[in-house]
Amino acid sequence: MNKWIKKSAILANSDGYLDRLQSVYPVTLTEEREIPDEIIQEIRRIFEAHDDEKLIKLLLCFEKFPIKDPYVAFLRQKRGVFIRKNPETIRRVAEQLYSLGFNGVVKGIKEPKEFNRQIGTLFKRWLPEMGFPLLSESEFETFKGICLLSGSDKFLKDYAQDKLGYDIEKGIDMVAKAGNTYFFLGEAKFLTDYGGHQTAQFEDALRTASFEKINCVGMAILDGVVWIKGKNKMFERICKSGQIILSALLLKDFLLESNNTGDLGTKESREEYGNDDVLFEKIE
């Protein structure tokens, strides 16, 4: 077992873990999505005219559709074509929209993003709090010491693929450098429950952690229920892994150690960690 897995499990089962985690993933009242007034009035006009096709076609332009319907994702792909070819489906979906009323439709498209969809953004916002510089590409490549690459999700992924040989399709949340020559590609997840979408998120993070080159390695930065011991398949899989998997709260310590030792951190823990071993065995 990689020692950072052991340290993370101990940390997550210690006093104050959730209290400290709020510095990384703060839960705040999220503002509604902004929709221009002229668009709202256009929705009203079409809604009151009961023009089913135009209403659905317009609402499909928004990130959040007002209702949850299994057919909506399909309709989004080729709005004009599929709407025209499936009149009964359009009529059914439209009736659901009319039953909400105009205000209900507007409320639906303005609904704030779910917390789980903000994880990557919150993590990237927290990264500078570790105290390491967040740099542009040219600065990042010449900086001596620990640093983080600044950029959008797409930019980080493109950089990792073009410059570091990253060959996994999934995007990443962090590109870090330590020891001047070692690079770390991290994907962060705060898993709040078991099963379904959360399991898929867990698998995505492990895929990133499976990446390894001579001077570059992937890591899964996981927090939440994944660290609870018991009938938890995620915990069992992590404990059998030699990959770099750790809590965001230990990321700074990991980078500092890697910078000081010149170790990518991928070797399995074969040392005696004294207190850590005892504490790990006592986790309930």
Automatic annotation (TrEMBL):
Hydrolase keyword on record: yes
InterPro entries assigned to the protein according to its UniProt record, in alphabetical order: Restrct_endonuc_II_Tsp45I
GO molecular function: endonuclease activity
Keywords, in A-Z order: Endonuclease, Hydrolase, Nuclease
Protein name: Restriction endonuclease
